[in-house]
């Protein structure tokens, strides 16, 4: 018997949030543990053995230990095809991946915890203000482009949720956390609201998985 | 007749370099034009119509205009399967994607031109030094993890080049550009050298495509 999948998670990690949504969309029952990024658990030898990058998420599944949220989600989609997280045609997949990567490559990493910490360290006079400016600048810039890139359907691409929505929703959560003005992004806000109506997205929300 | 593929390129862009390697590995004849990122061509209305993100590369192919280097490479691999850029099994694909994303998500975006420019603007007293410190810090950190993640074969994963090598080689070029000490990364340096022996990689090198 293969062990039940196990997610090394952190409630506020966008990358973990993506994998939680994907696991829910696929209906994959699993257990999880919190790796407390604020306490520094990700730098423990135990976690670095799981993931030399010192990031969450990591997922034990099918006897494997997988890292990198989008690689994990591709694996889930390939091994558990229903419901699909990518369109059936190569063109559609290219569009969805471009949208997903516009968030996962071009916004999220720049605003990651360790990058923000480095920015703060370089501005010892006003670290909080430096972080705040940094977050708002790069999230706004990225979402401005994304607003022009998404389609006219209910979701980022067409009328079913895809990998692009899985990346968008945690980024919008993050934008709100940092007080980004989203009035410039009505399409993205509408898509985020449509996703919030789906249990797979709602159940993955940070507030629902935050350790007590 | 479908038009010949056309790449909007920039010689020093890591993301463009990746797509050049992939086009070469697939043997896809194409034309290209330089979008001069230093001159600011990427912010022209013409280029923003191609890509609202204002990034290179963008690729016209099969009547489509595609953006995001890894989405483009996945599209090429799906529509031109030989030689494959990903392993045949889901586990191998997850490993290769994790390696590729450890570069393309966790190093490259943080060191992108527009991010470095923002760092420099925040340090008007010593902008060049601030940029240099930034580059070395994040490239070193990322490569340290990657050195632990790659396999024991000739390339990042096994004995044929994959998407992971396509991401690694431009990052090593970039590391050398910024004077990163690579003595800590003997495996990565060896893989980079193995790739350099392949015409598909050598012909894509920035020095080979730099405008006169």
Automatic annotation (TrEMBL), chains A, B:
<dbReference type="InterPro" id="IPR036249">
    <property type="entry name" value="Thioredoxin-like_sf"/>
</dbReference>
<dbReference type="Pfam" id="PF13410">
    <property type="entry name" value="GST_C_2"/>
</dbReference>
<dbReference type="InterPro" id="IPR034333">
    <property type="entry name" value="GST_Zeta_N"/>
</dbReference>
<dbReference type="InterPro" id="IPR036282">
    <property type="entry name" value="Glutathione-S-Trfase_C_sf"/>
</dbReference>
<dbReference type="GO" id="GO:0016034">
    <property type="term" value="F:maleylacetoacetate isomerase activity"/>
</dbReference>
<keyword id="KW-0413">Isomerase</keyword>
<dbReference type="InterPro" id="IPR004045">
    <property type="entry name" value="Glutathione_S-Trfase_N"/>
</dbReference>
<feature type="domain" description="GST C-terminal">
    <location>
        <begin position="89"/>
        <end position="212"/>
    </location>
</feature>
<protein>
    <submittedName>
        <fullName>Maleylacetoacetate isomerase</fullName>
        <ecNumber>5.2.1.2</ecNumber>
    </submittedName>
</protein>
<dbReference type="InterPro" id="IPR034330">
    <property type="entry name" value="GST_Zeta_C"/>
</dbReference>
<feature type="domain" description="GST N-terminal">
    <location>
        <begin position="3"/>
        <end position="84"/>
    </location>
</feature>
<dbReference type="InterPro" id="IPR005955">
    <property type="entry name" value="GST_Zeta"/>
</dbReference>
<dbReference type="InterPro" id="IPR010987">
    <property type="entry name" value="Glutathione-S-Trfase_C-like"/>
</dbReference>
<comment type="similarity">
    <text>Belongs to the GST superfamily. Zeta family.</text>
</comment>
<dbReference type="Pfam" id="PF13417">
    <property type="entry name" value="GST_N_3"/>
</dbReference>
<dbReference type="InterPro" id="IPR040079">
    <property type="entry name" value="Glutathione_S-Trfase"/>
</dbReference>
């Amino acid at each position: 018997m293969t062990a039940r999948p196990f997610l090394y998670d952190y409630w506020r990690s966008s990358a973990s949030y993506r994998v939680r949504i994907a696991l829910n969309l696929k209906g994959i029952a699993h257990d999880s543990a919190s790796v407390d990024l604020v306490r520094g658990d990700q730098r423990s030898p135990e976690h670095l053995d799981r993931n030399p990058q010192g990031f969450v998420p990591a997922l034990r599944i099918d006897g494997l230990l997988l890292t990198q949220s989008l690689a994990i989600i591709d694996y889930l989609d390939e091994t558990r095809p229903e419901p699909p997280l990518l369109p059936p045609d190569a063109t559609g997949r290219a569009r969805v991946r471009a949208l997903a990567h516009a968030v996962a490559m071009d916004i999220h990493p720049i605003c990651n915890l360790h990058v923000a910490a480095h920015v703060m360290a370089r501005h010892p006079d006003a670290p909080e203000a430096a972080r705040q400016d940094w977050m708002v600048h790069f999230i706004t810039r990225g979402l401005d482009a994304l607003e022009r890139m998404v389609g006219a359907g209910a979701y980022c691409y067409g009328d079913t949720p895809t990998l692009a929505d899985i990346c968008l929703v945690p980024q919008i959560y993050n934008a709100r956390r940092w007080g980004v003005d989203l009035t410039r992004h009505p399409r993205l806000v509408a898509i985020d609201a449509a996703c919030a109506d789906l249990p797979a997205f709602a159940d993955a929300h940070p507030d629902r998985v935050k350790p007590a």
